[in-house]
Amino acid sequence: MSDTADDVRKWYDIALAMTLIGSMDIEIEAARARVRAIRHRLVANSLTLNAMALSSRRASRRVWAYPRFSRWFEDTLPNLGGQNFRQSFRVSRTTFKYLVDVCTPVMQRQTTNMREAVSVQKRVAVALYKLCSSAEDRTVANLFDLGRSTVNTIHREFCDIVVEALEDQWVRMLAADEMTHHIREFYAVTGFPQAVGALDGCHFPVSPPKENAIDYYNYKGW
């Protein structure tokens, strides 16, 4: 009986010791987590202080925008004849003015103390030139004395305005009598029957017979 009591007491002591050890492990892990959190906060605070110190020592901006020297829009464009104007923008001066009137309510900007606003006429010219020439933003920016990001913004804004304001008015299916009329006109000009018009041409490389190779060249000489 005494031996049994001793055994029970031993198992009880062992269980109690293991329980104490487990609780100590939990407390140790919690303490480690608190230490890690403190370290993270110290690192974050140190980085913040370093960033504030660097920003306070940073030199003030000397210029708002670097000067540009291309004045093609201001000096050359007003002197272009009607044909050269159409070649540059693929529209007549009358259509150009119409587009300016359409875009003015949205594209008009106010001149501020920081810089002079880009006129609506110049904005429309930038967008049309980019659309008709497929030139890179950098090329258009240099030609019109603007920043590259400004050219990109103007181009996107112009396209949105044209679609919103003019799509329903100008893009529509032809009525039956109009389609017949356009088919006759297109055939009279091109000799191509049963067509109302052509959007563009696509070139597909072929291997023509040597004796009649010239008959396979397209209108661009390919």
Describe the structure.
InterPro entries: HARBI1-like (IPR045249). There is one protein chain. The protein contains 8 helices and no strands. The protein has 222 residues and is mainly alpha-helical. It folds into 3 domains: 1-58; 72-170, no CATH class; 176-216, no CATH class. Helix 4 crosses helix 5 (120-133) and helix 5 packs across helix 7 (148-170). The protein is elongated, with a radius of gyration of 38 Å. The chain starts with a helix and ends in a 32-residue tail after the last helix.
| Outline | elongated
Biggest β-sheet description? none
Based on secondary structure, the structural category is mainly alpha
Proportion of residues in helical segments? 55-70%
Number of helices in the DSSP assignment: 8
Strand content: under 5%
Mean pLDDT: 80
Give a count of the beta strands, DSSP E runs of length 2 or more.
0
How do the SSEs run, as a string of H and E?
HHHHHHHH
List segments where confidence is low: pLDDT < 50 over at least 5 consecutive residues.
Answer: none
N- and C-termini, Cα separation: 113 Å
- Give me the Rg, rounded: 38 Å
Number of domains: 3
